[in-house]
């Protein structure tokens, strides 16, 4: 906590608040039938994306999941461009052709949300290998869910990262469920011991606690930048919405989500911690809330009135030349 200036803390709060507001608005607009496709919301998990990405710059890469909006915002993607992408608009971040599950912005080191569970870790091995080979000083981070942590691609990536001694970090965001299957039913052994089995350090953190995530990520990222190789962070956290928008969530106990929101909400915790310690005052935080509400409100209005891609756009972006 002491390593963060007041400006850093205000930025961290602004990013977490932006994610929450963005997701709440997407939830509302999706329910109103205004958003095409499928959306998975990240609300509740903000401390993980922001706690990790506050340690990163544009030369660092992240790979995300199907629940990717929070990772995009934490890595600095443009909020209006993201909203337009989710609405399928031509001037969205990916030309309106990707939508919620494929938002990417390579200029920000954001390699993309990913519809393939376990798709991010192999990409991160490539990005980390390039950073190591080109000596950029960059690191690459894979966010992966508890369900994704069981994919062969993820476990193979742990092995590659270790054997190639890559500046890669795997952040397992364990929100307790893969779709409707509780992680207690599907994850064998311990995430930390899995990492140790591949010869890398692993640490478990309270993913509702921005400061715990920030510290763990700082340790792992500093080590990777110094040539210390890969590691894993197991963040336990919770999602506030269903697996996808429209999920009836019959697998949850009655009142489970209300209890989580009341007792372990990462934004409430952050606010309490910084106000109690007089690092930021409630007024400054309220002002950030207002700025963020207006930013996200503007993004929704802009997305609603923006144009979809044209028929000719179907024929572009088909082939890529490197
Ligand atoms: C390779 C693959 N298998 C299955 C799916 C279907 N699917 C989408 S999300 C999901 C659950 C993922 O759970 P987890 O990794 O814990 O992420 P969370 O949704 O909890 O954030 C599954 C099985 C998929 N998209 N890709
Ligand atoms: Mg999960």
Largest sheet: 5 strands, parallel
Task: Identify the CATH homologous superfamily.
Answer: Thiamin diphosphate (ThDP)-binding fold, Pyr/PP domains
Distinct small-molecule ligands in the complex: thiamine diphosphate, magnesium ion
Shape: globular
| Protein structure class | alpha/beta
Q: Number of DSSP strands?
A: 7
Highest CATH level, the class: Alpha Beta
Topology:
Layout: H1 6-31, H2 46-53, E1 61-63, H3 69-74, H4 79-86, H5 120-134, E2 140-145, H6 152-163, E3 168-174, E4 177-178, E5 181-182, H7 183-186, H8 191-197, E6 202-206, H9 210-225, E7 231-236, H10 256-263, H11 266-276, H12 282-305
Parallel strand pairs: 1-2, 2-3, 3-7, 6-7
Antiparallel strand pairs: 4-5
Helix pairs in contact: 1-2, 1-11, 1-12, 2-9, 4-12, 5-6
Thiamine diphosphate (TPP) binds at residues 65-67, 115-118, 145-148, 175, 177-179, 243.
Outline:
This protein is of the alpha/beta class and 322 residues long.
Report on the structure:
The protein is α/β, with parallel strands linked by helices and 322 residues long. The chain has one domain (6-306): Thiamin diphosphate (ThDP)-binding fold, Pyr/PP domains (Rossmann fold, 3-Layer(aba) Sandwich), CATH 3.40.50. Helix content is 45%, strand content 10%. α6 (152-163) links the parallel β2 (140-145) and β3. The longest helix has 26 residues, at 6-31. Thiamine diphosphate (TPP) is lined by residues 65-67, 115-118, 145-148, 175, 177-179, 243.
Please describe the structure with a list of short key phrases separated by commas or semicolons:
322 residues; binds magnesium ion; 45% helix; five-stranded parallel beta sheet; two-stranded antiparallel ribbon; Rossmann fold; 7 strands; binds thiamine diphosphate; alpha/beta
